[in-house]
Amino acid sequence: MCKTQCLLAAISLTIGLVNAWDIAITTGDQLEFYSNQTKINSEGMRFRDLTALAYDAVHNMLLFVDRQNDNASIFSYHLATKKYQSLVRRRSFENIQGLAFDPVMSLLFWTDTNERSIFWISLKPGSKNELYGNLLIKMDDEMPRAIAVDSCRGYIYWTNTNITKPSIERARFDGTDRKVVVNTDLFMPVSIAVDQRTKRLYWADDKEGIHYSIESSNLDGNDRKTVLSGTYHQPNTLTISKDSVYWVDWGFRSVWKLAKDASADVEPFELLKFSNEVPFGIVANYDISDQIEGSNDCAALQRLSQNKSAINDTFNIPRDIGLFCLHGVKLDGKLECKCSPGYTGERCEVSVCYNFCFQGDCTLSSEGQPMCRCQNGFSGIRCELDACKGYCLNNGVCSRSRQNPTCQCGTDYEGSRCETLKVYTTTNTSVPVTSLLFSSFSCTEKVLATSQQLSENWKEGEVTQTVCNPEWDSVRDPVIVVLGILSGVLCIICTFLVTKVLQLKKRPRIKKRIIVNKNVTPMTARPDQCEITIENCCNMNICETPCFEPRSTIRPTLGDSKPGKEEKKNLIANMEYPEEY
């Protein structure tokens, strides 16, 4: 009982998640689902670059393009079972821009811009399809891009983005009754959608320059209306729900929303903003009853929706649809491939040589087994062994050759693997090694004397000093000479100055004080007492007394007299009788 309740709860949760999303978007390698501007789920661990997207509301199935897949290009994803299935084999230079599915006839349509063609396959059990799809319409000048289906009336609509003659066209599911619906006032119609309920077309036109428009018309191209005309958007894909129009804008990396019946002054609402990846395809979730309500042309679609549950049931795609063998043949009556020699994998897509040889070239034997032709210095079944690994000792440098690895040893080691320490010997004791090391290399240039050079110059006990010769260094030696001359001049100047200073210190200093009383030498201009300091008399500021003459300047008549009283008398005489008198 508990298991049954748990199972029912899980089924109810799955059903709720299936119907919970509002829009689905392909961006990068992810298929993302959003509700109320919030991402509620994402799928895409096995994909690389998802682009065009289509939705089948009858069978709860998404169909999308992965343009970087190695094998297939178009896949289906069942929302209820969460299972993927490849449908169409990938062409070498394809560029699928538009994708559409008709649930009534189980037909899948897509456009290839490079091939300028529209292709289709049938997903009905027992149907026969080409591996790359069946060609429906081949065009000459047109460039088909977006495509949509009118399941109620059995038409496909596509846009032609050749800017010299853009148009919107339609044709029957078998390619007949081809007709141009709109070909005026168009520049580059990049996306198109069919509203089954209102019997109208909606398309996005990336106009010249910065302008764009979202427009609408009836299924015949008449009653044309402009839903929105704006600037700076670069619309890529467009989808519709019951009440709104959604489009992907590459200019702002955003998804925008606008009501179908919005007035001309209403601005679109930015629903989602992407920062890293750029969104590509977009589809809106809707109930099939909203699309066929009140339409007599949709009887077949209505019967199909009543016979199959839009939630619990999934479209039964034959398992062999999309099963192709890249390098082999498909076995009759089995879902298996018989691979050619040298290939393996579910679809013979993997070469046995892929990443087999590490350092060499891989070839196939007659039995289809990989064989490696290794590069020089490598060996092993997969060339995984490096002959130089750990071969040279003592920091020797290993070099690979065709035969064996060789070692380039350092200065102190020798041998095939640098395993022997070098020993220098000589039979002539008159030339020691120290003499060689310090006398042979006395030139001004920097010389690296290696043991190999020493051994080459050491022959029968004779050492030839030919490693280098002393030469004049044009940069270093002139600087040394100039600095030497300057140093000598400075030494001479310093010696002269020191000598002068010593001589000046030896000159005698005379300091005597003479007190003259006014009774002996009456002078009205002098004070009562004048104290004379001989040492400072030359300053001429003490009693205005003249200076005592040094002995070298004394008059010859006084030179031979006694230095005591005569000297004093001479000084007093000069004081009493100045020279100007």
TrEMBL record:
Originating species: Diatraea saccharalis (sugarcane borer)
GO cellular component: plasma membrane
InterPro entries linked: 6-blade_b-propeller_TolB-like (IPR011042), Cueball_EGF_LRP_Nidogen (IPR050778), EGF (IPR000742), LDLR_classB_rpt (IPR000033)
Lineage: Eukaryota, Metazoa, Ecdysozoa, Arthropoda, Hexapoda
PROSITE patterns found in the cross-reference section: EGF_1 (PS00022), EGF_3 (PS50026), LDLRB (PS51120)
Record region (Disordered): 558-581
Chief location category: membrane
Disulphide bridges, residue numbers: 388-398, 409-418
Molecular functions per Gene Ontology: Wnt receptor activity; Wnt-protein binding
Membrane-topology annotation of the record: Single-pass type I membrane protein
Transmembrane segments: 479-502
Gene Ontology biological process terms from the UniProt entry: canonical Wnt signaling pathway; oogenesis; spermatogenesis
Subcellular location: Cell membrane
Ranges for the LDL-receptor class B repeats: 154-198, 199-244
UniProtKB keywords: Cell membrane, Differentiation, Disulfide bond, EGF-like domain, Glycoprotein, Membrane, Oogenesis, Repeat, Signal, Spermatogenesis, Transmembrane, Transmembrane helix
Source domain of life: Eukaryota
Protein name: Protein cueball
Entry similarity comment: Belongs to the cueball family.
Signal peptide positions (record): 1-20
Gene3D superfamilies: Laminin, TolB, C-terminal domain
A Pfam short name: Ldl_recept_b
